[in-house]
Specification:
alpha/beta; Rossmann fold; five-stranded parallel β-sheet; 6 helices; disordered N terminus
Length: about 140
């Protein structure tokens, strides 16, 4: 239990959404659960933060429609900049075509807005466990 708690506290998350109130609320909620969170308000700003330190974050949570770079463009550019973390797309109803595109981009999860906060936390916790298991397997 202590290891899982310590790992949760070390999970570093970048949240990108142009809805300032929503992204700040999401950041506060994730911090409440013990995660380290940085919030940005568009795709261009998110990419800039990622380029400053591609290994600084374990998880990117991004909206689809944002000024500058949309969620798909951000994911492609972030991967190109060396980001190897997990990705959650947190967006309004996406078409089947967009869901397929995000799957092709290696997105681990899509959470539809509006979402109950427990749904997002559940997905984050699942991805956290996957990261923890991968880190432990590599250390063994």
């Amino acid at each position: 239990m202590e290891t899982q708690i310590a790992h949760r506290h070390s999970l570093r998350i970048l949240c990108a959404d142009d809805n300032m109130e929503l992204v700040e609320l999401m950041g506060d909620m994730l911090r409440f659960y013990g995660y380290r969170v940085e919030c940005v308000y568009d795709g261009t700003q998110a990419l800039s933060v990622i380029k400053e330190g591609p290994t600084k974050f374990d998880l990117l949570i991004t909206d689809m429609q944002m000024p500058g770079l949309d969620g798909a463009e951000l994911i492609v550019a972030a991967r190109g900049a060396g980001f190897h973390g997990k990705v959650i797309v947190f967006s309004g109803a996406l078409s089947l075509e967009w869901r397929q595109r995000f799957g092709d981009l290696g997105v681990e999860a899509i959470v539809d807005k509006p979402a109950d906060h427990r749904q997002l936390i559940s997905v984050v916790a699942r991805l956290q466990t996957e990261l923890w298991e991968r880190a432990n397997a590599a250390a063994a």
